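Q: Structure for this?
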Amino acid sequence: MSSTDLAQLSASGIARRIAAGETSAVAVTEACLARIEAREGAVRAWAFIDPDLALAQAHACDNETPRGLLHGVPLGVKDIVDTHDMPTEMGSPIYAGRRPSADAACIAQVRAAGAVILGKTVTTEFAGSFPGPTANPHDLTRSPGGSSSGSAAAVADGMVPAAFGTQTGSSILRPSAYCGVIGYKPTFGTYNIAGVKAASQSLDTLGLHVRDLDDVPLLTSVLVNRPFEPLAAPPTGPRIGVCRTPLWDLAQAETQRAVEDAAARLAQAGAAVRDVTLPEHFARLEEVRILINCYERSRHMLNEWRDHRDALSDRFRTVMQAGLDAPYDDYVAAMRLTEACRQQSDGLFDDLDVLLAPCVDGEAPVGLEDGGNPRFAGFWTAIRLPAVSLPTHTGPSGMPVGIQLVGRYRDDDRLLQAAKWVLETLDA
Amino acid sequence: MSSTDLAQLSASGIARRIAAGETSAVAVTEACLARIEAREGAVRAWAFIDPDLALAQAHACDNETPRGLLHGVPLGVKDIVDTHDMPTEMGSPIYAGRRPSADAACIAQVRAAGAVILGKTVTTEFAGSFPGPTANPHDLTRSPGGSSSGSAAAVADGMVPAAFGTQTGSSILRPSAYCGVIGYKPTFGTYNIAGVKAASQSLDTLGLHVRDLDDVPLLTSVLVNRPFEPLAAPPTGPRIGVCRTPLWDLAQAETQRAVEDAAARLAQAGAAVRDVTLPEHFARLEEVRILINCYERSRHMLNEWRDHRDALSDRFRTVMQAGLDAPYDDYVAAMRLTEACRQQSDGLFDDLDVLLAPCVDGEAPVGLEDGGNPRFAGFWTAIRLPAVSLPTHTGPSGMPVGIQLVGRYRDDDRLLQAAKWVLETLDA
């Protein structure tokens, strides 16, 4: 295969070909590095990349008995996730050159399974809203979305087959939707988050950006310890609830069209599609998610607030101050509401496999300053449900516009199976 | 006041006297250091203590306008909680001499309120079961319990008025009960846990060891940001459910007697006391808590497992291996059970203020190797309820035997008010 072809393979495809002796970890890593060499000047997806270090890992793979399911597979890592052999700077000058002493749990897991840590991907400042330098690979004048900007852009641009992202609001799904890749936010707590800089402990969720949905169960089997089973679409169309949410009127026309078009075509293809209306108090979820985020974030960041306040962006300081000012009773009330809604959400899935919902406001915003609004995915993050963004549609400018599928709490398998059927049906 | 008297004051008492100009931060810190000087050779509660560093903080307090509610109050800190100016070694040779770059959130919070970080208290190895050198101050041949061994012993021995502990099973309440102090484990997530070495992310709870229950609302107001209101016992006796739990037969006679005696005397004093039986599936809570603990802990500790396995104790390696071997589906089933039980637990409190339950197996075990069994408090930690241990009774050897009060999820205030009434009523 050509270097270009190798760089376009999925993680699963790479693992399979290396296992079969059809290619090598070094060849795949070189292909990724060549793509980065060609495109990084424009896309700026990487916070740290050291070709020698990546190739040394790949050489080690090629010289040893395969260690696990990810043998020789290059992965990108959002730069709020600790790596013992690469800086972890969190998108902030405060941590320029910081070298953690240990790997985050997820990094130790994928290394043990043979992965090559290709490099660290750009994050917005502490996974907040202040952007990094990354551009959208589909249109360099547009935002890749945040906060997992570099991970989504790198995967979209063929620089790496898969990358870790984190979502506290919509930080995996939104950049994935803007960049035209698949984003996966598991049920809260599914992947271990030790060694990942905390933003908001009740919301932070480690997840993935991939180009091929089949990579999700592969990586999941390593990250949670269960045997790998390839993803299979259900034989018949899933039961899909179209949930426009109380945020519907805030979505741009292209997002509304994407949801309506998907619903119509999936119904035509045999899915049992019906509309779902949420109980009224769900309307407050986005408001309380913001409060929880600010309240918790301001605690996690007290050191930086005390010792490096001038090095924080204005945007970040505003969030910090809002969190420090938030009364505890409001926070508790917010937590109670999210817990009640999560429990009630279970009933929605009694006769549904997934919800189909808007994912992003619309196409990626023009300019790199505005990373888009987190509300459409943040709504579901607040209640810890698993969700995927699927790059099924495009907007008026030809930019990707994703749809969102939301699963039952702790029923990620059913969500992913339905997502597979949806992707196959929409031929996306 | 004499040095001995100063060292016996509560955090609230110290804060009040310093604010009134009746004593100084330096005098209080010197009193604590004098007690440590006299007793540390026998008790061995401290992993790190630097008198000069403690006194420098106290001098700074005395030379500045009071910063907050804890101005000049010395606090002890379990050695899995990061401090930027003291080592954080986590009870393991792996981290000998480790200096974190930042304070844990809770440390930054109490410093901002004027606290003096007196030193780091001994933890068992990574807050697991392998003991440190600490002895029980009431009988140096006995265990102080774990994992917050040093915090409980230091508070019990008058070395410091209050100390941070953490509880993943029973690591605050058990050592508190063995050492004859008050332990407080808030509702899961109440105090921010960033900068605390993770043991099991779904269970880890930051809390307190104190000699005076009034210190809990004082520290809480700093740690959650709410105005300080002194604790007041309810005017009439609370509604108390005696919950012997399915573990009752495993409790030693002194623990059973403590619970029965407390129930009888509290009823006589005007509490509405009745027996409570839990739904049958609660019986599995302790078993699933162990599984969750092992599963999650093995992920958090992958770095140490990979790079420093020989430096882990046999006990720790056994836990790690159990966690690595645990099937994911079992973990998910365990999490589902704890979530269901937590939701159901709410109903128990519809007509009850608190549950009265056994706290520890019995008196502290003889010898320092056996830190006692975590099951009696771990049972409630599994479902994230707030709990306190109260040093109300003694056993056949004259050692402290605590009782446990358990509150409704997120209703810590009601728990603490009831606890105040119970302490006053039992004159403990």
